[in-house]
Amino acid sequence: MGKASIKYRIGVDLGGTKIEAAALDDAGRTVARRRIATPAGDYIATIAAVRDLVLALEAELGARGSVGVGTPGALSPPTGLIKNANSTCLNGHPLDKDLSGALDRPVRIANDADCFALSEAIDGAGAQAPTVFGVILGTGVGGGVVVRGKLLQGPNAIAGEWGHSPLPWPRDDERPGPGCFCGKRGCTEAFLSGRGLAEDHTAHTGERLGAPEIVAQARNGTPGADASLRRYEDRLARALAVVINLIDPHVIVLGGGLGRIERLYANVPRLWGAYVFSDTVVTRLVPPRYGDASGVRGAAWLWSAEERA
Ligand SMILES: [Zn+2]
After folding, report:
1. Which of 4, 99, 196, 247 supports an S-S bond with 191, CB 3.0-4.6 Å?
2. How far is the CA of 186 from the centre of ligand 1 (A)?
3. How far is the CA of 152 from the centre of ligand 1 (A)?
4. Which of 54, 45, 1 is nearest to 23 (CA)?
Protein backbone atom coordinates (compact mmCIF):
# COMPACT_ATOMS: atom_id res chain seq x y z
CA MET A 1 0.00 0.00 0.00
CA GLY A 2 1.38 3.39 -0.93
CA LYS A 3 1.50 5.61 2.13
CA ALA A 4 0.28 8.82 0.62
CA SER A 5 -2.57 7.26 -1.35
CA ILE A 6 -4.50 5.73 1.57
CA LYS A 7 -7.04 8.15 2.85
CA TYR A 8 -10.03 6.14 4.05
CA ARG A 9 -10.87 2.95 5.90
CA ILE A 10 -13.30 0.85 3.91
CA GLY A 11 -15.34 -1.78 5.72
CA VAL A 12 -17.35 -4.48 3.98
CA ASP A 13 -20.09 -6.51 5.66
CA LEU A 14 -20.43 -9.71 3.64
CA GLY A 15 -23.82 -11.09 4.59
CA GLY A 16 -25.91 -13.96 3.30
CA THR A 17 -28.41 -11.69 1.54
CA LYS A 18 -26.60 -8.37 1.10
CA ILE A 19 -23.12 -6.96 0.88
CA GLU A 20 -22.71 -3.53 2.45
CA ALA A 21 -19.64 -1.32 2.24
CA ALA A 22 -18.80 2.01 3.84
CA ALA A 23 -15.80 4.32 3.88
CA LEU A 24 -14.86 5.99 7.16
CA ASP A 25 -12.64 9.04 7.50
CA ASP A 26 -10.04 9.26 10.25
CA ALA A 27 -12.60 10.59 12.71
CA GLY A 28 -14.80 7.53 12.11
CA ARG A 29 -17.43 9.42 10.13
CA THR A 30 -19.12 7.52 7.31
CA VAL A 31 -18.33 9.43 4.12
CA ALA A 32 -19.75 7.02 1.56
CA ARG A 33 -21.85 3.89 1.64
CA ARG A 34 -23.18 1.30 -0.81
CA ARG A 35 -25.14 -1.92 -0.62
CA ILE A 36 -25.91 -4.71 -3.13
CA ALA A 37 -27.56 -8.12 -3.04
CA THR A 38 -25.20 -11.04 -2.40
CA PRO A 39 -24.78 -13.34 -5.43
CA ALA A 40 -26.38 -16.31 -3.70
CA GLY A 41 -24.30 -19.47 -3.52
CA ASP A 42 -21.66 -18.23 -6.01
CA TYR A 43 -18.17 -17.75 -4.55
CA ILE A 44 -16.49 -16.33 -7.68
CA ALA A 45 -19.34 -13.85 -8.19
CA THR A 46 -19.14 -12.88 -4.50
CA ILE A 47 -15.45 -11.98 -4.84
CA ALA A 48 -16.22 -9.91 -7.94
CA ALA A 49 -19.12 -8.20 -6.17
CA VAL A 50 -16.96 -7.14 -3.20
CA ARG A 51 -14.27 -5.88 -5.59
CA ASP A 52 -16.76 -3.85 -7.63
CA LEU A 53 -18.33 -2.39 -4.49
CA VAL A 54 -14.97 -1.23 -3.10
CA LEU A 55 -13.84 0.19 -6.45
CA ALA A 56 -17.15 2.05 -6.83
CA LEU A 57 -16.71 3.64 -3.38
CA GLU A 58 -13.16 4.65 -4.26
CA ALA A 59 -14.25 6.14 -7.56
CA GLU A 60 -16.87 8.17 -5.70
CA LEU A 61 -14.28 9.39 -3.16
CA GLY A 62 -11.39 9.82 -5.58
CA ALA A 63 -9.03 8.01 -3.18
CA ARG A 64 -7.97 4.54 -2.14
CA GLY A 65 -8.69 2.96 1.21
CA SER A 66 -7.61 0.14 3.43
CA VAL A 67 -10.08 -2.75 3.23
CA GLY A 68 -11.47 -4.92 6.03
CA VAL A 69 -14.23 -7.48 5.53
CA GLY A 70 -16.62 -9.00 8.06
CA THR A 71 -17.81 -12.46 7.13
CA PRO A 72 -19.79 -15.32 8.60
CA GLY A 73 -17.51 -18.05 9.91
CA ALA A 74 -13.77 -17.53 10.27
CA LEU A 75 -10.47 -18.26 8.59
CA SER A 76 -9.20 -21.54 10.00
CA PRO A 77 -5.65 -20.81 11.19
CA PRO A 78 -4.14 -24.17 10.14
CA THR A 79 -5.65 -24.23 6.64
CA GLY A 80 -6.18 -20.53 5.82
CA LEU A 81 -9.64 -21.45 4.53
CA ILE A 82 -13.07 -20.24 5.70
CA LYS A 83 -14.90 -22.54 8.12
CA ASN A 84 -18.23 -22.42 10.00
CA ALA A 85 -19.89 -19.96 7.57
CA ASN A 86 -23.65 -20.34 7.22
CA SER A 87 -23.18 -18.82 3.73
CA THR A 88 -21.73 -22.19 2.83
CA CYS A 89 -20.29 -21.19 -0.57
CA LEU A 90 -17.53 -19.37 1.35
CA ASN A 91 -16.42 -22.47 3.25
CA GLY A 92 -13.20 -24.06 2.07
CA HIS A 93 -11.96 -20.93 0.25
CA PRO A 94 -9.01 -18.62 1.09
CA LEU A 95 -11.30 -15.57 1.17
CA ASP A 96 -8.65 -13.12 2.37
CA LYS A 97 -6.16 -14.13 -0.33
CA ASP A 98 -8.76 -14.09 -3.08
CA LEU A 99 -9.99 -10.63 -2.05
CA SER A 100 -6.42 -9.35 -1.73
CA GLY A 101 -5.74 -10.53 -5.27
CA ALA A 102 -8.93 -9.02 -6.64
CA LEU A 103 -8.28 -5.66 -4.94
CA ASP A 104 -4.47 -5.61 -5.35
CA ARG A 105 -3.79 -4.85 -1.68
CA PRO A 106 -3.81 -6.67 1.67
CA VAL A 107 -7.35 -7.35 2.89
CA ARG A 108 -8.14 -8.26 6.49
CA ILE A 109 -11.12 -10.38 7.32
CA ALA A 110 -12.81 -11.20 10.62
CA ASN A 111 -15.94 -12.89 11.85
CA ASP A 112 -19.04 -10.68 11.66
CA ALA A 113 -19.68 -10.84 15.42
CA ASP A 114 -16.05 -9.84 16.03
CA CYS A 115 -16.58 -6.83 13.74
CA PHE A 116 -19.72 -5.88 15.68
CA ALA A 117 -17.82 -6.10 18.97
CA LEU A 118 -14.90 -4.08 17.63
CA SER A 119 -17.12 -1.31 16.30
CA GLU A 120 -19.05 -0.94 19.54
CA ALA A 121 -15.82 -1.05 21.57
CA ILE A 122 -13.92 1.54 19.50
CA ASP A 123 -16.47 4.36 19.40
CA GLY A 124 -19.85 2.79 20.12
CA ALA A 125 -21.74 1.71 23.23
CA GLY A 126 -18.60 0.26 24.81
CA ALA A 127 -16.26 3.17 24.04
CA GLN A 128 -13.79 3.83 26.88
CA ALA A 129 -14.51 0.43 28.46
CA PRO A 130 -11.32 -1.66 28.81
CA THR A 131 -13.10 -4.94 28.02
CA VAL A 132 -16.19 -5.40 25.83
CA PHE A 133 -18.12 -8.56 24.99
CA GLY A 134 -20.15 -7.92 21.82
CA VAL A 135 -23.03 -10.30 21.18
CA ILE A 136 -25.09 -11.09 18.11
CA LEU A 137 -28.57 -12.40 18.96
CA GLY A 138 -30.24 -13.10 15.65
CA THR A 139 -30.42 -15.98 13.20
CA GLY A 140 -27.37 -17.24 15.07
CA VAL A 141 -25.79 -16.43 18.41
CA GLY A 142 -22.21 -15.20 18.12
CA GLY A 143 -19.85 -13.03 20.08
CA GLY A 144 -16.53 -11.26 20.09
CA VAL A 145 -14.18 -10.04 22.81
CA VAL A 146 -12.33 -6.72 22.59
CA VAL A 147 -9.64 -5.91 25.14
CA ARG A 148 -8.29 -2.35 25.16
CA GLY A 149 -9.37 -1.72 21.59
CA LYS A 150 -8.04 -4.98 20.16
CA LEU A 151 -9.95 -8.09 19.18
CA LEU A 152 -9.02 -11.15 21.17
CA GLN A 153 -7.89 -13.65 18.54
CA GLY A 154 -6.86 -17.16 19.48
CA PRO A 155 -5.31 -20.13 17.69
CA ASN A 156 -8.68 -21.62 16.73
CA ALA A 157 -10.26 -18.31 15.66
CA ILE A 158 -13.28 -18.95 17.90
CA ALA A 159 -12.81 -16.45 20.76
CA GLY A 160 -16.23 -15.31 21.99
CA GLU A 161 -18.16 -18.16 20.35
CA TRP A 162 -20.40 -18.71 23.34
CA GLY A 163 -23.37 -19.84 21.20
CA HIS A 164 -22.17 -23.43 20.83
CA SER A 165 -21.59 -24.08 24.50
CA PRO A 166 -24.46 -25.73 26.38
CA LEU A 167 -27.11 -23.60 28.06
CA PRO A 168 -25.88 -23.47 31.68
CA TRP A 169 -27.83 -24.64 34.74
CA PRO A 170 -30.46 -26.35 32.53
CA ARG A 171 -33.90 -27.06 34.03
CA ASP A 172 -35.32 -30.54 33.62
CA ASP A 173 -37.51 -29.41 30.72
CA GLU A 174 -34.45 -27.88 28.97
CA ARG A 175 -32.62 -31.21 28.73
CA PRO A 176 -31.39 -32.45 26.32
CA GLY A 177 -32.56 -29.28 24.56
CA PRO A 178 -33.25 -28.46 20.92
CA GLY A 179 -30.99 -29.71 18.15
CA CYS A 180 -28.41 -27.26 16.78
CA PHE A 181 -26.98 -26.98 13.26
CA CYS A 182 -23.54 -27.80 14.72
CA GLY A 183 -24.75 -31.33 15.45
CA LYS A 184 -25.16 -31.06 19.21
CA ARG A 185 -28.23 -30.56 21.38
CA GLY A 186 -28.89 -27.89 23.98
CA CYS A 187 -26.51 -25.26 22.60
CA THR A 188 -27.05 -21.72 23.87
CA GLU A 189 -27.73 -20.71 20.24
CA ALA A 190 -30.53 -23.26 19.97
CA PHE A 191 -32.33 -21.43 22.82
CA LEU A 192 -31.35 -17.79 22.23
CA SER A 193 -31.55 -17.41 18.42
CA GLY A 194 -34.72 -15.95 16.91
CA ARG A 195 -35.74 -19.43 15.90
CA GLY A 196 -34.98 -20.72 19.40
CA LEU A 197 -37.35 -18.14 20.91
CA ALA A 198 -40.06 -18.95 18.34
CA GLU A 199 -39.81 -22.72 18.87
CA ASP A 200 -39.90 -22.36 22.65
CA HIS A 201 -43.00 -20.19 22.33
CA THR A 202 -44.69 -22.82 20.14
CA ALA A 203 -43.76 -25.58 22.58
CA HIS A 204 -45.42 -23.72 25.48
CA THR A 205 -48.43 -22.13 23.75
CA GLY A 206 -49.07 -24.11 20.56
CA GLU A 207 -48.91 -20.80 18.61
CA ARG A 208 -46.58 -20.38 15.65
CA LEU A 209 -45.22 -16.84 15.84
CA GLY A 210 -41.96 -15.24 14.75
CA ALA A 211 -39.73 -13.53 17.31
CA PRO A 212 -40.92 -9.98 16.37
CA GLU A 213 -44.58 -10.99 16.86
CA ILE A 214 -43.82 -12.57 20.24
CA VAL A 215 -42.09 -9.35 21.33
CA ALA A 216 -45.04 -7.24 20.08
CA GLN A 217 -47.57 -9.44 21.90
CA ALA A 218 -45.55 -9.31 25.11
CA ARG A 219 -45.51 -5.52 24.87
CA ASN A 220 -49.31 -5.60 24.63
CA GLY A 221 -49.51 -7.70 27.77
CA THR A 222 -50.34 -11.12 26.25
CA PRO A 223 -49.48 -13.57 29.05
CA GLY A 224 -48.11 -16.43 26.87
CA ALA A 225 -45.74 -14.12 24.99
CA ASP A 226 -44.66 -12.44 28.21
CA ALA A 227 -43.87 -15.84 29.73
CA SER A 228 -41.82 -16.77 26.64
CA LEU A 229 -39.76 -13.61 27.00
CA ARG A 230 -39.31 -14.28 30.72
CA ARG A 231 -37.88 -17.72 29.93
CA TYR A 232 -35.69 -16.11 27.26
CA GLU A 233 -34.42 -13.51 29.73
CA ASP A 234 -33.57 -16.12 32.35
CA ARG A 235 -31.67 -18.22 29.80
CA LEU A 236 -29.81 -15.16 28.53
CA ALA A 237 -28.92 -14.24 32.13
CA ARG A 238 -27.55 -17.74 32.77
CA ALA A 239 -25.57 -17.81 29.52
CA LEU A 240 -24.09 -14.35 30.09
CA ALA A 241 -23.24 -15.23 33.71
CA VAL A 242 -20.81 -17.86 32.44
CA VAL A 243 -19.21 -15.26 30.15
CA ILE A 244 -18.93 -12.82 33.06
CA ASN A 245 -17.36 -15.52 35.25
CA LEU A 246 -14.83 -16.28 32.53
CA ILE A 247 -13.72 -12.88 31.19
CA ASP A 248 -15.43 -10.33 33.50
CA PRO A 249 -16.14 -7.75 30.77
CA HIS A 250 -16.88 -4.15 31.73
CA VAL A 251 -19.59 -3.84 29.09
CA ILE A 252 -21.77 -6.34 27.21
CA VAL A 253 -23.46 -5.03 24.02
CA LEU A 254 -26.36 -6.91 22.46
CA GLY A 255 -26.67 -6.68 18.67
CA GLY A 256 -28.74 -8.58 16.12
CA GLY A 257 -32.52 -8.54 15.80
CA LEU A 258 -33.17 -9.73 19.36
CA GLY A 259 -30.80 -7.11 20.75
CA ARG A 260 -33.61 -4.64 19.92
CA ILE A 261 -35.84 -6.09 22.68
CA GLU A 262 -35.73 -3.15 25.08
CA ARG A 263 -36.80 -5.04 28.23
CA LEU A 264 -33.69 -7.23 28.14
CA TYR A 265 -31.50 -4.35 29.32
CA ALA A 266 -33.40 -3.93 32.58
CA ASN A 267 -34.52 -7.50 33.22
CA VAL A 268 -31.41 -9.57 32.45
CA PRO A 269 -29.08 -7.74 34.89
CA ARG A 270 -31.73 -8.25 37.59
CA LEU A 271 -31.49 -12.00 36.97
CA TRP A 272 -27.80 -12.64 36.35
CA GLY A 273 -26.74 -11.82 39.92
CA ALA A 274 -28.13 -15.21 40.98
CA TYR A 275 -25.64 -16.96 38.69
CA VAL A 276 -22.48 -14.81 38.62
CA PHE A 277 -19.77 -15.81 41.12
CA SER A 278 -19.58 -12.41 42.80
CA ASP A 279 -21.32 -10.57 45.64
CA THR A 280 -22.23 -7.72 43.30
CA VAL A 281 -22.26 -7.48 39.50
CA VAL A 282 -21.48 -4.06 38.03
CA THR A 283 -21.14 -5.22 34.42
CA ARG A 284 -23.18 -2.93 32.15
CA LEU A 285 -25.59 -4.49 29.64
CA VAL A 286 -26.25 -1.96 26.88
CA PRO A 287 -27.88 -1.65 23.45
CA PRO A 288 -25.56 -0.96 20.51
CA ARG A 289 -24.86 2.56 19.32
CA TYR A 290 -24.47 1.66 15.67
CA GLY A 291 -26.63 -1.48 15.45
CA ASP A 292 -26.54 -3.06 12.02
CA ALA A 293 -23.98 -0.48 10.83
CA SER A 294 -21.46 -1.96 13.27
CA GLY A 295 -20.76 -4.75 10.75
CA VAL A 296 -19.17 -2.40 8.23
CA ARG A 297 -17.69 -0.10 10.88
CA GLY A 298 -15.93 -2.91 12.71
CA ALA A 299 -14.60 -4.31 9.43
CA ALA A 300 -13.16 -0.88 8.63
CA TRP A 301 -11.54 -0.69 12.09
CA LEU A 302 -9.62 -3.92 11.42
CA TRP A 303 -6.93 -1.54 10.18
CA SER A 304 -5.71 0.76 12.95
CA ALA A 305 -4.40 4.22 12.18
CA GLU A 306 -0.78 3.19 12.89
CA GLU A 307 -0.95 0.18 10.63
CA ARG A 308 -2.21 2.16 7.69
CA ALA A 309 0.36 4.94 8.01
ZN1 LIG B 1 -24.43 -25.64 18.41
Report:
1. 196
2. 7
3. 21
4. 54
